[in-house]
């Protein structure tokens, strides 16, 4: 999606947020380039190319890279409601030389903490709405309320970091979390909620007015409902309308499974074992049945083990996945007509369904920029027939 009137500016700041330099990327020479990508419930990343004479003092570990874009005199917007953190700098001596800077978005903070709790403790055993469970995990490992194996551990708190208030909008969750990377368990919990019928997104966003990084969750959608006909300023996309390309519509049974055995605590025949079978379609034979064993030894509660078995069975459902790229056209301009995480309407193969703007990539090189946006819609097969976004 190429939009020549847009301007893209990069601000480099130190770890405290003090401005070091500003680069108007759409006006710089080919020695300057940047590509940044963000994706729902994942860690975004960037790579930036600078001339070899650029001041290395500005490129320190975890210095901030803020990317803003504006269209035709409109107020500049912070890309993805976040800034990025420098994680590597490489001086390249070939082809005239260059500096390549790489980094990650604020969601990377969630990879820097583990769930430092013993199995069975109040800090590992969680139940409630999925979004509230996720916020509790973040509060207890990233804020002044943090604990670890030895008790209170405020030293684990990030500076200028907050957690959004509970909203109780996710699907019910009953799980034990212990000795795990925080981001992985947040993604796992969001996925479990989606499979149970309520999509949950999460992000660490930068609140510019206060300077706070805030962990937030979103129920149903990460952005705005732009579905036809009931959404806000509906957006309808199709190849026929000229605003959708690269369509891939895939039926996938390769990783499907139909029966789960789940093992909790205990040894041999004293181990807690629960099962979860899928609704058996008429065509399912003994040959077609695919089994999986799930290790949930962190759980002694049979109900928790059963919940884990049911949740993991959902992961084994065969799927139909539609992915596509949005093409700029009147009424489909990123940042004006739709944004990251919005839900839009797609027409494909004679069907109309909802899809999520799941990922966005912005790139600038030689003064020209491009924005590509990826859509995703997923439908389960073999007994489940509703589209989820």
Keywords:
389 residues, 27 strands, 11% helix, disordered C terminus, mainly beta, 3 helices
Structure report:
The chain is mainly beta and 389 residues long. The model is unreliable at 382-389 (pLDDT under 50). The chain contains three helices and 27 strands. It has four domains: 6-104, Thrombin, subunit H; 112-219; 236-251 and 320-388, no CATH class; 257-316. The radius of gyration is 23 Å and the shape is globular. It has a 15-stranded mixed β-sheet that branches. α1 packs antiparallel against α2 (182-195).
Distance between termini? 22 Å
Number of strands: 27
Radius of gyration over alpha carbons?
23 Å
**What count of helical segments does DSSP give?**
3
Mean pLDDT: 89
Q: Detail the poorly predicted runs.
A: 382-389
Helix % is 10-25%
Helix/strand/pairing class, anyone? mainly beta
Task: Please state the oligomeric state of the protein chains shown.
Answer: single chain
Biggest sheet layout:
15 strands, mixed
Strand content: 35-45%
Shape descriptor reads globular
Q: Could you give a quick summary of the protein structure above?
A:
The protein is mainly beta.
Topology:
Blueprint: E1 6-13, E2 19-24, E3 33-39, E4 45-50, E5 64-71, E6 77-78, E7 84-92, E8 98-105, E9 114-115, E10 125-129, H1 130-142, E11 147-148, E12 151-152, E13 161-163, E14 172-176, E15 180-181, H2 182-195, E16 200-207, E17 212-219, E18 236-237, E19 244-252, E20 259-263, E21 273-277, E22 291-295, H3 302-315, E23 319-326, E24 343-348, E25 351-365, E26 368-380, E27 387-388
Parallel strand pairs: 13-17, 18-24, 20-22
Antiparallel strand pairs: 1-2, 1-5, 3-4, 3-25, 4-8, 5-6, 5-7, 7-8, 9-15, 10-14, 11-12, 16-17, 19-23, 20-21, 23-26, 24-25, 25-26, 26-27
Helix pairs in contact: 1-2
């Amino acid at each position: 999606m190429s939009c020549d009137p847009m301007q893209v500016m990069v601000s480099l700041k130190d770890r405290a947020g003090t401005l070091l330099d500003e680069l108007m990327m759409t006006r710089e020479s080919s020695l300057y380039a940047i590509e940044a990508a963000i994706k729902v419930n994942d860690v975004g990343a960037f790579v930036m190319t600078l001339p070899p004479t650029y001041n290395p003092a500005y490129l320190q570990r975890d210095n901030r890279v803020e990317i803003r874009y504006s269209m035709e005199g409109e107020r500049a917007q912070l890309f993805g409601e976040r800034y990025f953190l420098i994680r590597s700098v490489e001086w390249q001596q070939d082809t005239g030389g260059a500096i390549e800077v790489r980094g990650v978005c604020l969601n990377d903070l969630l990879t820097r903490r583990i769930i430092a709790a013993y199995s069975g403790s109040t800090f590992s055993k969680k139940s409630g709405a999925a979004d509230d469970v996720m916020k509790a995990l973040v509060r207890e490992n990233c804020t002044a309320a943090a604990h670890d194996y030895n008790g209170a551990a405020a030293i684990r708190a990030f500076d200028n970091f907050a957690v959004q208030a509970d909203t109780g909008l996710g699907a019910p969750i009953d799980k034990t979390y212990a000795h795990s990377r925080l981001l992985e368990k947040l993604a796992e919990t969001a996925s479990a909620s989606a499979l149970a019928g309520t999509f949950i997104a999460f992000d660490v966003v930068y609140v510019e007015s206060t300077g706070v990084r805030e962990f937030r969750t979103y129920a149903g959608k990460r952005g705005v409902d732009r579905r036809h006909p009931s959404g806000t300023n509906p957006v309808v996309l199709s190849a026929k309308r000229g605003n959708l390309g690269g369509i891939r519509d895939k039926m996938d049974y390769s990783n499907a499974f139909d029966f789960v055995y789940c093992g909790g605590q205990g040894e041999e025949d004293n181990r807690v074992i629960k099962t979860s079978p899928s609704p058996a379609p008429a065509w399912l034979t003994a040959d077609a049945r695919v089994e999986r064993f799930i290790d949930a030894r962190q759980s002694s509660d049979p109900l928790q083990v059963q919940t884990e078995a049911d949740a993991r069975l959902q992961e084994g459902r065969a799927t139909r996945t539609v992915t596509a790229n949005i093409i700029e056209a009147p009424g489909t301009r990123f940042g004006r007509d739709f944004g990251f995480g919005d839900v839009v309407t797609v027409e494909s193969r004679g069907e109309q369904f909802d899809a999520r703007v799941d990922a966005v990539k912005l790139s600038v090189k030689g003064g020209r920029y491009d924005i590509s946006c990826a859509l995703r819609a997923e439908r389960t097969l073999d007994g489940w027939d509703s589209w989820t976004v």
